[in-house]
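Justification of resources, computational component.

The compute hours requested in this renewal are based largely on the per-chain cost of generating structure records like the one below. Each record pairs the submitted sequence with a full structure-token output. That output is archived, and it is also reused by downstream analysis tasks.
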Amino acid sequence: MRSIALLLLACLLALATGGATSGCSSTTTTTTHTTEQPSAEGNTTVQTTETKTTEQQTSGPSVGILSGTIHAIGFILALPFKIIGGLIQIIF
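The structure output for this chain reads:
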């Protein structure tokens, strides 16, 4: 019985720390525009404009170890009630 409890605790901690260790991804885009303008003297003027855009995307809300563990425990406790509620909804 004790080994089952330790296994369950290890699974809950693995689930909780999995959300806390996931980082965000970022994408950097660089756009370069080159414009050539002829001048009155016959020379060509070259103007270069560079635009840099950075986007950061997160995989989800930031979840701490304690709140993630409590959320997982609440989900496990609520699961039988959700199953029974689903069965009752199917019957009626």
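The radius of gyration is 28 Å. The chain has a mean pLDDT of 77.
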